[in-house]
Amino acid sequence: MILNANIPDEVKKVPLEEKWTKYRSTVPLVAPNNKRRLEIIVVGTGLAGASAAASLGELGYNVKCFTFHDSPRRAHSIAAQGGINAAKNYTNDGDSVYRLFYDTIKGGDYRAREANVYRLAEVSANIIDQAVAQGVPFAREYGGLLENRSFGGVQVSRTFYARGQTGQQLLLGAYQALSRQISLGSVDMYNRHEMLDVVIVDGKARGIIARNLVTGKLERFAAHAVVLATGGYGNVFYLSTNAMNCNVTAAWRAVRRGALMANPCFTQIHPTCIPVSGDYQSKLTLMSESLRNDGRVWVPKKKEDAEAIRKGKKTALDIKEEDRDYFLERRYPAFGNLVPRDVASRAAKTACDEGLGVAPTGLAVYLDFSAAIKRYGQSKANSSGIHNASEAQIIELGEKVVEEKYGNLFEMYEKITGENPYKLPMKIYPAVHYTMGGLWVDYNLETNIPGLFALGECNFSDHGANRLGASALMQGLADGYFVLPYTIGKFLSGDISTPKIDANRAEFVAVEKETRERIDKLMSIGGSQSIESFHRRLGKIMWDYCGMSRTAEGLTAARQMIRELREEFYRDVFVPGKADEFNPELEKAQRVADFFELGELMVVDALNRNESCGGHFREESQTEEGEAKRDDVNYRYVAAWEYRGWEEDPLMHREDLDFDNIELKSRSYK
Amino acid sequence: MSQLNLTLKIWRQQNANEKGRFETHQVEANEHMSFLEMLDVLNEKLIGEKKEPVAFEHDCREGICGACSMVINGHPHGPQQKTTTCQLHMRHFHNGDTIHVEPYRAGAFPVIRDLVVDRAAFDRIIQAGGFISVNTGQPQDANALPVEKDQASRAFDGAECIGCGACVAACPNASAMLFVSAKVSHLALLPQGKVEAARRVQSMVKQMDLEGFGNCSNVTACEAECPKGISVENIARMNREYFSSVITTETRVD
What we know:
The structure holds two protein chains of two kinds. Chain A contains 18 helices and 20 strands. Chain A is α+β, with helices and mostly antiparallel strands. Chain B has nine helices and seven strands; from the N terminus they run ββαβββββαααααααα. Chain B has helices at 35-48, 120-127, 149-159, 166-170, 177-188, 191-194, 197-210, 221-225, 233-246; strands at 3-12, 21-30, 70-72, 75-76, 98-103, 111-113, 116-117. In chain B, the strands form two sheets. Chain B has a five-stranded mixed sheet. Chain B is elongated and about 65 Å long.
């Protein structure tokens, strides 16, 4: 299979900065009278799905939108905390579209497509305008204008934020736009419906099979095109910052029907999460990257101090300044605590591997705000005209400033851990957060199956091997508001005379039957182990062998373990209840079944990529200083995998990445 | 790490039409678990005994999605103030406690299964007008419209609502006034939302009444139980918006 990314004007070499503008003005349009006849299915109502469904509805298409939640507003985009990037240059610190493009390509360790990323940077500013017009309450200065802050891997302040709830506010903006289209009748909303398969008619995606989660009935839905905005697959690791119901099923079912899965091993491990506290743990909670604007990351220099802390004999406050190792500041003086996530995570792991971890499990480092509290307190005292302020006064004033900035995060930390982060430094450890890999899409966000599109975290396109902070919200909304509504015209303009697709066609009946058989199979096993227990075991294999650090040996072993576990699952899992009723355990069973297959593919991909880049760290490929060593000669490509069933090895298709505008360099934050 | 032996009196109900009942279960939890993780333990135990697990709604488990929705010892989201069920930790309970767990009880929120209720009425209220009518691609530059910082902050206080429905469950009248007023306030306080403020408040209130939510009688239990601390000031603001808009024919929507 030859992968054509359909980047406009590759042959004529139109400059990068003109590609999108020119393409947007020449991409085939669908006339309003024809839009009224065309139907589009959008699966997922996070930032990408809700913004796409709303925008397509506004354009006049007939949209059917699906979510497994009880309401579109619950999608996990809602949990994003820190912010959204945009090349507005409101802070006058030298930001530009080019700089955002450059930072994103470099941050992704040169494993993303130039044209896609440039377009993302270009439309970033429109997102902020759109969100403000919808009433998204971004943070403001006293003059009434928008405020910015910094995020990792970047030396400008281009991140817009809404307290610690940026994702919530942006999602509510998109949800409200979607609600408006529902009320106008251009979008039919299907809550509590889970997509279980995609239906292909004459080579084009023409519909889905969904399970009504309240009645348990399978339902067929037809349309001229299908858009997947179903998020990432981080829950393959069981423990992650994803919501409990995040899953890969919609995307994986597309893969089973021939869509390619690109770079599945590219996983983002986020450095600042609340550490695991016990075996019962169901999920991990993120502490926003924005905290690294003011928090300093450290561990004790001496192993005996770390051990005393682990045993509860000492606390962070007993460690003198000179006995602390601010290891990010030491190793990466240029970016300090604001190095990108992959770099910060690996550094924390290294410190803990050396026996310097500070939680009873040995897996935690400190994130300390005491310096920031003193700095802010002093400045507040000065501006309030308090001279000779006492240390206690300064700390009190400083704590108030920190509370204004990060209050809700500190509160959340205290609720979960029972410790007061104003007084004791936070304990944090890396956790699975985001998946850069996803369905392979071309410049139009179309997969290799005509008529099947993938947006947001569900696709692979913009973040390469590592995503920069505050870029996920940007990409989800860029895809949904400003890219897909144009690019989908290329496919649909060829379908204007295609009549309404009939959901009673043989293809639909056949796929529904296969879906029912899969469900019946799971229900009939009647084994002795819970679905949850299998998911935990799969997650542990993935984390141990395909997590922050990977080796050929470990990956090979992991593949075998996953295969054995999957066999055991189909032999001994127990799914309670019935298929034709509200049954959350059955939902979980289907998702875990797909995670096994995806998990294996991730391991295969990680094994194939014998280089270290971004979040993918192969121990075999590192510098003497322990930094990731990329191999541009052999691996400067996207690995897009064709799944050929459980019995056969997956087949890799390559899309070589050309860098015409950016010079490939070794990524340094020192 | 201290262990807790707990007795749960938990509501079981097959569907909206069937009669429900309390079931008693013993669970061992530890103090660092969240309430939902304690229910996970119970469900794993039930599954091990080949019994049906307790259905409850949950997703993000970090207090923001608004999915979790149960009443614990008479309080929506449990006894901790400004805390969702998923963020409620077992360290706030004692060894030997008996805990009652029920679904939200409101006519407009029919039970689907056990602790899961249908809150689609909230979506329909937003669809009635809880938005600013702006199509993609229409807006001006974001900084072309300054918004006074405190004003923006008050709007934000309304926008923080997670749509969980605790306010309805807490109210003796099953009123949705706190939910509706939070959205009305959020949008009416911003200059970009002012244009259609009159139409919005009337449409949303009309839909709220159609859904069968009760009226407000100033009990203010909604504010006390709201996991995001949304203030009843919003209800006052909504009443003001509503009455001032229906009083003149220019702004009244029939």
